[in-house]
Specification:
Blueprint lengths: L5 H6 L5 E3 L4 E3 L3 H10 L8 H17 L17
Length: 81
């Protein structure tokens, strides 16, 4: 996965992040969508409602970039399929 440098990350619209207010977990391409799913549980200081909204954004991005999600919601992350 290509690293985003600070300049590129700061230039990204907030809507290209799973957590736009915090600007955490970019989801602007397939690789970053997969990374956002893998790191979702590492995001701290967000409410469950923020997690719900972030998961919906990840699902939308996953469909856009043809990324298969095995989980139907963020509560299933890290559990066997």
């Amino acid at each position: 996965m290509s690293e985003l440098d600070t300049r590129d990350r700061n230039a990204m619209p907030a809507g290209e992040f799973a957590f736009p207010r915090e600007r955490k977990l970019p989801i602007h391409d397939a690789k970053h969508v997969r990374n956002a799913v893998a790191r979702f549980d590492q995001v701290e200081d967000v409410s469950d409602s923020e997690r719900d909204a972030a998961w919906k954004r990840i699902e939308t991005a996953a469909r856009k970039f043809d990324v298969e999600l095995h989980e139907t919601n963020w509560h299933e992350l890290g559990k066997p399929h």
